[in-house]
Predict the structure of Phytoene desaturase family protein.
Amino acid sequence: MTQTATPRTPGLEGENETWDAVVVGAGPGGLTCGAYLAANGKKVLVLEANQVVGGSTQVFRRAGNKFEFDVGTHYVGECGPGGRMQTALSGLALTERITWLRQRPEGHCQIMIPGTTFQTPTGWDTYLDRLVAAFPEEESGLRRCVTIMRTIAAGERPLLRPFALLRWGVRPITTLMAACGLSADAQAVILAENGDYTWPPHRTPTAMHAGFLHHYLQAGAYYPRGGGQVIGAHLTDVISTHGGQVRTKARVEQILIEDGRAVGVRVRGGEEIRSEVVVSAADFKKTWVELVGDEHLTRRLRRKLKDLEMTLPMFAVYVALDVDLRERDTPPLAWVWPTNDVDGYYREVSAGRCPERMPVGISCPTAKDPEGTHSAPAGYSTLELVSWAPREHAFWNVKTGPADGGSYRRDERYLQLKEELTQRVLDTAELLIPDIRERMVFCEASTPITQERFTLSTDGTCYGIAPLLKNLGPFRPRVTTHIPGLFLAGGSTEHMFGINATIYGGMGTAGAVLGRDLFQEVRDGAVFVDEARLTPVTHDFDPLLASKPSSVIRRPVRRRPRATA
């Protein structure tokens, strides 16, 4: 792929020009929607406030480009043949350009709680067998619990599924596990990976957690070859080679509504861009409250927004080590809990407190993608350590959020809290990598305030609106809205959150705009992209450079040598 990124002068190209569709936000959902629209002949403009496309799938580099870290691409389900990811990418001719690496089929994620280490396998049968092996005295309760979750999520017993949904699916997962008589340790293992949606178990419907487990159990976990940035890079290429345009550093401040219809957007600086259709892949709450405005909301929507809760935000620590962890057979993915009280930790964080002992998800890109050329030099490893922390600005000693222009990065109390939580995260990570501090050559942390700054998300959330019963199934926001010409994409829509769901959902939003069932068309074999028009991928392809269409890259990347046979 070409390695040039010519800066665009805002206002010179596109001003006084009408587009078929303007997409607000270049996360995976917005980019996929834009790509499908462009591939179907629509003149599309995607606007992104950040300087890099990709949303939470983007990467960043440090130490003179020596190390690369994923912001949020850690592991993804349903990426094998016939899965939703491959289906969504196939309609854009991207299945060969974005390839997915299966992670440890024997156990893609290692779960550690005090006294127990558990490998999450592929397949419900194997999952149950391993739970019984870990807790043999609880076999009866485990079989009952897993059978109910499997019935709800996998749809293998269609006659019993409605009963299971009504009896257990709508109730909290903690209620089901308690009814099955499961110990705190067994519950902790079943719940350990729920940091993938950061919501308290006692408020999570069983159907939600069962569906989450099924996402990985049905076909394993995957990671994109080359890191998360390849997603944004190739989706951007589809748009730009099929008559569309992606602009970064272009923050939308208002969706223009005239005579009750969406007719375009206004970006920071005053430029107005007209379009037949507007798709907002921005934060759900801010879309309505800030971009659309109260005068255009229905009474029902106002009530919903008033009580809307977002998933808890992440606290992440990015670490580089001067050792190749593959030589130690360190798992590429792990969730480490220093306590078995999963729900108790969530209760503390939800109350605005951060306990001394923090659970940590550990992701090692250099182990997940051994031939990755940008993650680290040979002999080094990179780690992303993720936990979650209070969302309140007051907790972080921030009066005004960065989305509203507030400054925080030099505040002494903020920096002190950031350092304290970093050390707590490293304490937990030592349970898996005892010498992590001794081998550490780089360390940087990001807070919920950081996430808010770069993604403009409410409360710094990564996953959008909370997975409460009132926000699931038929109650979840549709991609169509009450305002003609305005559509939604992203993790807070009916298609759910997570990389797989938002990409698949982006195709769904494009279908709604076009008035067609793109899901069925693609499943029937439709490919809308002319692959010959896509930019050739060359040996020096840099997905981060390709994801900065409005920036100049002044520092060459340092590439990691590919593994040799």
Summary: The mean pLDDT is 94. Residues 153 and 211 are 5 Å apart (CA to CA). The two ends are 26 Å apart (CA to CA). The chain has 18 helices and 19 strands.
